[in-house]
Write a structure and sequence with these properties.
heterodimer, A: 270 residues, alpha/beta, Rossmann fold, 2 domains, six-stranded mixed sheet, B: 298 residues, mainly alpha, ABC transporter involved in vitamin B12 uptake, BtuC, two-stranded antiparallel sheet, 69% helix, 3% strand
Chain lengths: 270, 298
């Protein structure tokens, strides 16, 4: 656990989430994000990463899910099961998987939407200017429909939308998914830059190498449980992580096929 | 020629009434994906409320109109809050049938309170007319166009430029993404129902004013406005307005010329003209003039 004497900006304690009253997806997850840090959340498809983000931001009801046990606190205030507008006002903004920008609205309108939930509208112009500075490409295209942007630009727009809420922390769900290596690298660098501005980041990624390379701390989620955590560097050096997520084995690189059959044989929690 | 201009003018005034009703349909459909069959009940309720405030309580007419729109908006928001919010996420068919039930319930309420007899709305326009050159226009039609124009312009200004309009558009495009941005979609739903209630009420007032008189059948105009919404494209407010105007003008032109030039179609053919226009346009453009191609959403 990160421990620098500060209250964690996000603290999830022993969280259980059930969908449709029967499918238990999270089984007692605990994690913390220290202020201004980058925390990576790794795990295979179906491990519960997106569910954890939904639980934090109050979007579970949309998917007929609910928190059955455990707590979520932001800056020491418990916010378990609060609705999304309340969560945003507590300083947490999410970028959903697949970016989900409003394709038929312009870039500028999309960014304005990001600022709607803000109670204090005074800093809005300043934030807008900062976002435009961070993503100059959005400034060039501000009157264009978001649907006409490239994948990388849409990811930047989605991140810009989240930043418009003036959050202390952002949750990113698979920001590099479907992007070219070059675009993914650009997004990685932007995440670092946003973080340097003091914004905390909880980063969900399939691209473990990218995530671990910038993470202060990382958690590995499997089958609804945290099975491992440590600093980014520790996990990069971890044998299991290398085998499961980085495709590196004792005998050097394994083929994808070998990794897959190996994964089937060895479950984390078994 | 004078006849023609006169018919066009009357058609635009009629179309403005359809446009107001159709806008009510579209606003709710966009936000919630539900076709609100109770829209006709807002029309009736609005007109009867003006009768109540203006004639029975003898308030100034303008005040009566504003009050009626406000109360009708409140009823719309109330219906959403008490009934519709509980069925969010249920099959759309069930929700639509609930609105059908609400239509009959509200209409029954209206006749219970105000009776079946025809009433006079007590509007200041009456049956008076004005002459512009050889053109004779009724004050009621002029006022209908002015009021509808002001309300529609106000709606589009809010819809296009205000933060709340932005929230409404975002919610219509991607509900979950809107929630993730902190938009309170329940407030958007409630506001959509309130807007539908208010514009429906205004439509009712402009329909029942003048010589037309007020009777419980007034809500039936929603049936004629229905094609206006469909041909404009279910989810386009601009389409609803244009659809309403097109149908209004077609209807008055048909009423004006069909008995003379196509008498074989029979009497009162103009009544079904909205549906004829709707069928023709849908054959060419299945999603209406301005509708989104894929209106089915999660």
């Amino acid at each position: 656990m990160p421990d620098d004497g500060h209250e964690p900006i996000l603290a999830v304690h022993n969280l259980e989430v059930v969908y449709s009253d029967v499918i238990r997806v999270l089984r007692g997850v605990s994690l913390e994000v220290a202020p201004g840090s980058i925390v990576a959340l790794l795990g295979a498809n179906g491990a519960g990463k997106t569910t954890l983000l939904r639980a934090i931001t109050g979007l579970l009801p949309v998917h007929h899910g609910r928190i059955t046990k455990g707590t979520i606190s932001l800056n020491g205030t418990e916010v378990t099961s609060l609705p999304p507008p309340a969560i945003i006002r507590h300083g947490v903004a999410q970028v959903m998987e697949g970016r989900r920008v409003f394709a038929e609205l312009t870039v500028a309108e999309n960014l304005r939407i990001g600022g709607l939930a803000r109670r204090n509208k005074r800093g809005l112009d300043e934030t807008y200017a900062k976002v435009m500075e961070l993503f100059p490409v959005l400034a060039d295209r501000k009157d264009r429909s978001a649907g006409l942007l490239s994948g990388g630009e849409q990811q930047m727009l989605a991140m810009g939308q989240a930043l418009m809420a003036g959050p202390a922390m952002i949750l990113l769900d698979e920001p590099s998914l479907g992007l070219s290596a070059l675009n993914a690298l650009q997004i990685r660098n932007l995440i670092v830059e946003i973080n340097h501005g003091g914004t905390g980041v909880l980063l969900v990624e399939q691209n473990a190498r990218m995530a671990l390379s910038i993470a202060d701390h990382a958690y590995v989620l499997d089958n609804g449980k945290v099975v491992k955590d440590g600093s980014g560097a520790e996990l990069l050096a971890d044998r299991d992580i290398q085998e499961f997520y980085l495709g590196v084995g004792d005998a050097g690189r394994l083929s994808f096929r070998d990794v897959k059959s190996y994964r089937r044989k060895k479950r984390w929690s078994a | 020629m004078t006849d023609f201009v006169q018919l066009i003018f009357a058609g635009l005034a009629l179309g403005a009434r359809y446009a107001l009703v159709a806008l009510g349909f579209v606003v709710i459909y966009r936000a919630t994906g539900v076709i609100n069959f109770a829209q006709g009940a807002f029309v009736a309720l609005g007109a009867y409320l003006v009768y109540q405030f203006g004639t029975t309580w003898a308030l100034p007419f303008a005040l009566a109109v504003i009050l009626a729109m406000l109360v009708s908006a409140g009823v719309g928001a109330g219906v959403e809050r008490v009934v519709l919010r509980r069925v969010i996420g249920r099959p759309v068919f069930a929700v639509i049938m609930i609105t059908v039930g609400l239509l009959f319930l509200l209409e029954q309420f209206v006749t219970s309170v105000w009776g079946h007899q025809s009433l006079n709305l007590g509007d200041p326009w009456g049956v008076s007319t004005a002459s512009i050159g050889t053109l004779v226009v009724s004050h009621r039609d002029v006022w209908t166009l002015v009021l509808a124009g002001v309300v529609l312009a106000g709606f589009f200004a809010v819809f296009r430029y205000s933060g709340f309009g932005l929230a409404m558009r975002a919610t219509a495009l991607d509900q979950e993404a809107a929630m993730a941005r902190g938009i309170d979609v329940r407030r958007v739903f409630a506001a959509s129902w309130a807007i539908a209630g208010a514009v429906g009420a205004l439509a009712g007032i402009t329909i029942a004013s003048g010589a037309a008189g007020l009777n419980p059948g007034i809500g039936l105009i929603a049936l004629a406005a229905f094609p206006a919404m469909i041909l404009g494209g279910l989810d386009s407010p601009l389409g609803a307005v244009l659809g309403g105007l097109i149908i209004g003008v077609t209807q008055t032109l048909t009423a004006g010329y069909q008995p003379q030039y196509a008498a074989w179609l029979g009497e009162n053919f103009y009544v079904v003209m909205p549906f004829v226009v709707m069928i023709l346009i849908l054959m060419v453009r299945p999603f209406g003039l301005f509708g989104t191609k894929e209106v089915a959403r999660l």
